[in-house]
Amino acid sequence: MSRSAHPAGPRHADVLPEGHYSAPPADLNALDGKVWAQTVTRDAHGVVTVGGLPVTRLAEEFGTPAYILDETDFRARARAWRTAFGQDADVFYAGKAFLSRAVVRWLHEEGLNLDVCSGGELATALSAGMPADRIAFHGNNKSKDEIRRAMEAGVGRIVLDSFQEIVRVAHVAQELGRRQRVQIRVTVGVEAHTHEFIATAHEDQKFGIPLAGGQAAEAVRRALQLDGIELIGIHSHIGSQIFDMSGFEVAAHRVVGLLKDIRDEHGVELPEIDLGGGLGIAYTSDDDPREPHEIAKALTEIVTRECEAAKLRTPRISVEPGRAVVGPTAFTLYEVGTIKPLDGLRTYVSVDGGMSDNIRTALYDAEYSVALVSRSSDAEPMLARVVGKHCESGDIVVKDAFLPADLAPGDLIAVPATGAYCRSMASNYNHVTRPPVVAVRDGEARVIVRRETEEDLLRLDVG
Ligand code: LLP
To answer: CATH for 138-321?
Structure first.
């Protein structure tokens, strides 16, 4: 690995162009515990380690790019959610954030339930031994085949997302001679403070049945009439990467309002409410996420208070965190390739992956951090943009970040907080193969999702 200083490029705060960044950090070698997984640290030689293993060894053994997942941290976060909500509530991990058979086993062992939203996620969950009654099946357009498979497996609940689906699920249940436990997903009309594409409780979008105009009340009326389904509760998911609890407060208020209307009209007190996922994590040092115990306390208090006011028995609460469990537990390890300093602008640092392993920056203008991890450096900070190898100028992994000015091809850099929605949204754009997920725990590393090969890609071509 070359250690030579890189030729001149923009270096100092006084020449910084417009961007998302704040001032360069005081110490480029520091690893902020908010954004890095629990066991990540820098050893005496300056090499970053995770679970006791140096990233240089992981890169040698598993190649780059690779998602490196701290299993100890994953289990600790899963357990923290479980413990925070206690025995009177259920925590469903949202599999869309990242799912693999190993993850399903960890969740099972740590006492979490699982939210799936496709036949593929369901198959993964079942194949790894998650008991079907601990699975919730979601989605705004589940196929009849998916509904049937879920019901045949015996999933604990199906979350109904439309009027058609109420009928469809009841119908399949009758064909199978079953009674399926269901919730109805409602849109409560909250504008969550997050990116438009990941906000899901305002009315003008595809998910759920609006409370407004009495539509949700009508859905409940229909569901209560059908023999094949047992309505156990109301579901609300207001969006994702949310820090402000006020959206949940409004959602809980409105959902409890519906429970009260249902009690008044039908004489039925539904026993459950699900407040969805959506709790934010730190992608950069500027983010301040809440701990699971604070979230559990806040949500439980809101629901209890609202129910007391409505003279309702407090229903069993469930939540569906995805990002907040897995997001902070992994980082993506890349090797630096070409480096291009653009005078007066920034230095473009190309890595051996890109938008195919992390589409979030291109899709949501997401912000990430980055650090040199194969060594420490005392060089001055250089304003960098970390880009991938794809044929697309929007192929940006980290839009604005500071890296040491002596960064050189062959160095390893890592982008933290890539555990959620990176591997699960990865693509094969430009026929780039998707990276592996390597789980590290107590000095041992093992592949839990292997690297895709070119043979994998070719296997799908017919003729
Ligand atoms: N429950 C339901 C019904 C959901 O739709 C979602 C996420 C979750 C739970 C989990 O939300 P979380 O706790 O992970 O925020 N691809 C986007 C996020 C889309 C989230 C979709 N639904 C991103 O990368 O930010």
So the answer is: 3.20.20.10
